[in-house]
Amino acid sequence: MQKTVNQSILPYTARINEQNHLEIGGCDTVELVKKYGTPLYVYDEEGIRTCCKHYKDAFSAYGDVLILYASKAFMTRAVCKIMKEECLGLDVVSGGEIYTAMNSGFAMQKCYFNGNNKTPEEIELALYCNVGRITVDNFYELELLNKIAAEKEITANILLRITPGIECHTHEYIKTGQIDSKFGFDLAQLEEAVLKIKTDYNNLSLKGLHAHIGSQIFEKDVYVDLVGIIAEQYAKIKQKYGMEFTEINLGGGIGVKHTEEDDPISIYEFAEVIIPALNENIKKHNLERPKLLLEPGRSIICNSGVTLYRAGSYKQVTDGRKYIAVDGGMSDNPRPSMYQAKYTALVANKVNSNNEETVTIAGKYCESGDILIEAIKLPAISPGDIICIPATGAYNYSMASQYNRAPRPAAIIVHKGRSDVIIKRESYQDLISFDVIPERLAKSGFSCI
Ligand SMILES: Cc1ncc(COP(=O)(O)O)c(C=O)c1O
Question: What global pTM score does this model have?
Answer without folding.
Answer: 0.97
